[in-house]
Design a protein that fits this description.
The chain has eleven helices and 22 strands. The protein has 419 residues and is of the alpha+beta class. The chain has a five-stranded antiparallel sheet with strand order 12-13-17-21-19. Strands 3-2-1-4 form a four-stranded parallel sheet, sandwiched between helices. It has a four-stranded antiparallel sheet with strand order 5-8-6-7. Helix 2 packs across helix 3, helix 3 (77-87) runs antiparallel to helix 4 (95-102) and helix 4 packs across helix 5 (104-113).
Length: 419
C-alpha cells in the first residue's frame, strides 16, 4: 500500500484524506497540533512541526513514503518540496523554485527581474531599515509577512509614522522573520483566487474568480466571498494565463495544483500577486470541481504518488457559484453555540456547509483566514440574486454566540461583504 504524507491538520484536509483512502492509500498527517481534526481521519499522525523540514524528512525517509503534499496549508509547502526533492518524489517544482514562490519578497524580485507587472516593493528583515526608504514608496503601502497566507499579518499603511505597528504585526506572523512593503495596488473589478493545474509544466486547467473582501471585518483584506464565473474580461484572462504559463516555464514547474491570486490594476495591467504550489483554502478546488467537473483534488493526490491522472477537461459553469466564508465582524467575539440557516435558503441555494468551528469554540474577530467559522457553497441562477443574498446574509443566517462574561447572551454574526 502506497503511503501519502499530508502536511497540516485542518478541516480543509479531511476531503483530501477521504479521497486518498478511496484510492487505497495509507495516509499520514503531520503537524505540531495533535488536536487538529484531520488527524482523526488519517491512518497515522506525526507530531512534528511542518516548518522543521529536516525532522519531517527524517521521518519520511524512515517510513518510506511514496508522496507528499501540503494541501491548503501554506506553511508546509516549502517543506513538502524539500522532502520530495530529497526523496525523488513528484512535486510541482524544485525546492529552489518553490522557495521563490513561497517568499513574497523573493517572488516580487523574480517578477521584476523577468519583467512581469509587479507592485513597487522591498523585502526586509530589519524592522528599522524601512525608515531609510520612505521616499522609495508611493503611499499608501501594504506591509506583509513574506511567508503567510490568508491575509494574516497584512496591514494597509497610509503614512510613515504608522509603519512600526504594521511591521510588528507582520513579524508576529512570519516564521522566517522577514516582511515586505509594497505600494498599495488599486485594481479594476475584483481580485481573483483560483486553483489551476499544470501537467508537465503546461496549464491544463485555468480558472478565474471574483474574490470579494469585507470592509467591516477586523482585517478588511481577508477574502470573504469567492464567485464563479468571473466578471474579468476575456482579454485580461488570456493575458494572465499567458503570463502564468511564462512563469511556469521560467521556474521549470512540473505537474500539480496551485493557488493563484491575480488582479487587474487601475492602470489596466494584469498582475500575478500570489502563486503557491498547493490547493487553496476555503475549499476552492472542491467548488471548482462541483461547478466545472474537474477532478482537482484526486489528481493532486494521484500526482503525488505517481498514479495516472484523470482527464482535466472542464465544462462551462452553469449559473453562478459562491464560496462564502463565515466569520465574525470587528469587535465580535464569544463562545460558539450554534448556527441557523433559513430552511428555504438551504433547499434552494445551499450546496455545501462545512463548519470548521464547533460548539464551544472561541469565536474571534476575522483577522485572517484562520479565524473563519466555516465555508458555504451557494448556487444561484443569476449574479444579481447571488449578490443580493450574499450581501445581506443577516436576512437568512445567524451564528449564535455565548458572551464570555455573561452566560446566555446571543449575538448576530454575519459574513457581510460588499462589492
Amino acid at each position: 500500500m502506497k503511503k501519502l504524507l499530508i502536511l497540516g491538520g485542518s478541516s480543509y484536509i479531511v476531503p483530501v484524506i477521504q479521497k486518498a483512502h478511496e484510492l487505497g492509500l495509507f495516509v499520514i498527517t503531520c503537524d505540531y497540533l495533535p488536536q487538529n481534526i484531520a488527524h482523526t481521519y488519517s491512518d497515522e499522525y506525526w507530531n512534528i512541526s511542518i516548518i522543521e523540514k529536516e525532522l519531517v524528512l527524517r521521518a519520511a525517509e524512515k517510513e518510506k513514503i511514496d508522496g507528499v503534499i501540503s494541501f491548503a496549508c501554506d506553511p508546509g509547502v516549502v517543506t513538502a518540496a524539500y522532502v520530495a526533492e530529497k526523496m525523488n518524489l513528484p512535486f510541482q517544482g524544485s525546492y529552489e523554485a518553490v522557495s521563490i514562490l513561497q517568499d513574497k519578497g523573493r517572488f516580487r524580485q523574480f517578477l521584476m527581474e523577468h519583467e512581469f507587472n509587479c507592485p513597487h516593493s522591498r523585502r526586509y528583515t530589519d524592522r528599522e531599515a524601512p525608515k531609510k526608504d520612505i521616499e522609495f514608496f508611493h503611499w499608501p503601502v501594504m506591509v506583509k509577512p513574506v511567508d503567510s497566507a490568508g491575509s494574516k499579518g497584512v496591514t494597509k499603511v497610509g503614512k510613515p509614522d504608522e509603519l512600526s505597528v504594521a511591521i510588528d504585526t507582520a513579524l508576529a506572523i512570519s516564521h522566517c522573520g522577514a516582511f515586505i512593503i509594497e505600494d498599495f495596488l488599486t485594481f479594476q473589478g475584483f481580485h481573483s483566487s483560483a486553483d489551476p493545474f499544470t501537467v508537465d509544466g503546461k496549464l491544463e486547467f485555468v480558472s478565474y474568480s471574483d474574490q470579494l473582501f469585507d470592509p467591516e471585518a477586523a482585517n478588511q483584506y481577508t477574502p470573504a466571498r469567492i464567485i464563479w464565473p468571473t466578471t474579468m474580461t476575456r482579454e485580461h484572462q488570456d493575458e494572465l494565463t499567458k503570463e502564468t504559463q511564462r512563469l511556469m516555464e521560467l521556474l521549470h514547474m512540473r505537474t500539480g495544483i496551485y493557488n493563484i491570486e491575480t488582479c487587474v490594476g487601475r492602470d489596466g495591467r494584469p498582475y500575478l500577486m500570489e502563486v503557491s504550489p498547493r490547493g487553496g483554502g476555503c475549499k476552492i478546488a472542491e467548488l471548482q470541481e462541483m461547478a466545472m467537473g474537474v477532478p482537482l483534488v484526486e489528481n493532486e493526490i494521484r500526482k503525488a504518488v505517481a498514479m495516472p491522472l484523470l482527464p482535466m477537461k472542464a465544462h462551462p459553469v452553469e449559473g453562478h457559484w459562491c464560496e462564502m466564508i463565515l466569520h465574525a465582524q470587528s469587535g465580535q467575539s464569544g463562545i460558539l453555540q450554534n448556527i441557523s440557516i433559513d430552511d428555504k435558503v438551504c433547499k434552494k441555494y445551499l450546496r455545501l456547509l462545512a463548519m470548521s468551528a464547533r460548539p464551544g469554540d472561541l469565536v474571534e474577530p476575522f483577522t485572517g483566514a484562520n479565524k473563519s467559522l466555516g465555508d458555504m457553497f451557494l448556487h444561484f441562477e443569476s449574479r444579481e440574486m447571488l449578490d443580493r443574498m450574499t450581501q445581506h446574509p443577516c436576512e437568512w443566517i445567524q451564528v449564535n454566540l455565548e458572551n464570555k462574561k455573561k452566560i446566555g447572551g446571543g449575538t448576530k454574526l454575519m459574513p457581510r461583504s460588499k462589492s
